[in-house]
Amino acid sequence: MTRLLISAGNGPAECRLAVSQILRRLAPEITPDWVQSAPDKFGPASAIVSLPPVQAARWCGTILWRCRSPIRPHHKRKNWFVGVFRLDALPLPMARLHQRDLRFTSFRAGGPGGQHQNTTDSAVRVVHLPSGLTAVSRDKRSQHRNKAQALARLETMLALESLDADKRWRNTLNELHHNLDRGSPVRVFSGNSFEELP
After folding, report:
1. Which domain holds residue 138?
2. What is the largest CA-CA distance in the chain?
3. CA–CA distance, 66 with 43 (Å, rounded to integer)
4. Does the residue 173 lie in any domain?
5. What is the rounded radius of gyration, in angstroms, for the C-alpha atoms of the chain?
6. Would 144 be classed as within a structural domain?
7. 99 and 126 in contact (C-beta within 8 Å)?
8. pLDDT tens-digit profile, the chain (198 residues)
9. CB-based contacts of 164: which residues, under 8 Å, 6+ apart?
10. Is 132 inside any structural domain?
């Protein structure tokens, strides 16, 4: 499935109505994955949907809705634009660590810390194989305690990376929402019935 952002950009309420019309048109086939909460009755400023790749390709680009404003009947403008953008994969929520994804190695710890630290392989390195992230602990005298500390450090690193990926993804959504191109529509719809023009 391909994820699409359907966005009214910074357009007026009529553009939000157009987003709602597109969602209604897709309704028999999809349920939106996410809909931006709407502060008014006209519809969401944006929504995310998942479609089969061939169908998604037909929607990507600018959508033009030609219609006299149902909100402001005396308004002269009749062209309302919506942007449809292909999205990269969503960042995955941080999953629980599985033993099969971890590789532990022990090594001799250097530096101060008592005679046992210098003579035994008490330091521990853990590698998270899917991400390549590595954490090390050599602070404790016992290998068991170093292993627990290295694992805790790795979990913190993965959580921070997950938050960073989520922030980057949300920034991308925000940029797309404000990058609506109001020209060269890929599809044109007309009237209150939202009929597609050839």
Report:
1. 99-166
2. 87
3. 18
4. no
5. 26
6. yes
7. no
8. 888 889 988 889 999 999 999 998 887 767 677 776 555 688 888 888 888 889 889 999 999 999 999 989 888 999 999 999 988 765 555 557 788 989 999 888 665 555 554 557 788 999 988 888 888 888 788 888 888 888 888 887 777 777 677 777 777 777 776 777 777 899 999 999 999 998
9. none
10. yes
